[in-house]
TrEMBL record:
<dbReference type="InterPro" id="IPR008914">
    <property type="entry name" value="PEBP"/>
</dbReference>
<dbReference type="InterPro" id="IPR005247">
    <property type="entry name" value="YbhB_YbcL/LppC-like"/>
</dbReference>
<dbReference type="InterPro" id="IPR036610">
    <property type="entry name" value="PEBP-like_sf"/>
</dbReference>
<protein>
    <submittedName>
        <fullName>Raf kinase inhibitor-like protein, YbhB/YbcL family</fullName>
    </submittedName>
</protein>
<dbReference type="Pfam" id="PF01161">
    <property type="entry name" value="PBP"/>
</dbReference>
Length: 149
């Protein structure tokens, strides 16, 4: 089970967690997975005009809960963060083109059987993280929220 205290699965994401608001990460919580050594989070918008757009890349998370407003830097007290498709480190929320209708935002949590060793944190993207996770994923959870401008 993967939840947020600020929106339910398939509900609208509150403005605070988007580019129209403060643009901070929402609080997230998931069930501990037996034998999981670490967790990774990837937030994706498959409805973006240019194809799937990545909003957050985080890995080597040791806890099963992230608070609101995880700091936007490579190393945090919760884990390591990579580059999103805005070219920034950390979370940047939903920001679909105006008048584009609702986009879906998938908050994906991956339970891993190892801690990942990636050479350069600054260059870690969703794609390179997915490659590094291959063979180590023991469970996946998804929370989907919607947003339109």
């Amino acid at each position: 089970m993967f939840v947020s205290s600020v929106f339910k699965n398939e509900d609208v994401i509150p403005v605070k967690y988007t580019c129209e608001g403060v643009d901070v990460s929402p609080p997230l919580k998931w069930e501990k997975v037996p034998n999981a050594v670490s967790y990774a989070v990837i937030v994706e918008d498959p409805d973006a005009p240019g194809g799937t757009f990545i909003h957050w890349v985080m890995y080597n998370v040791k806890v099963n809960e992230l608070p609101e407003n995880v700091e936007k830097r490579e190393r945090t007290s919760y884990g390591l963060q990579g580059l999103n498709d805005f070219g920034r480190i950390g979370y940047n929320g939903p920001c679909p083109p105006r008048g584009h209708g609702y986009h879906r935002y998938y908050f994906n949590i991956y339970a891993l059987s190892t801690e990942l060793s990636l050479k350069s944190v600054r260059k870690v993207t969703a794609e390179s993280l997915k490659d590094a996770m291959e063979g180590y994923v023991i469970a996946v959870g998804t929370l989907m929220g919607k947003f339109k401008r």
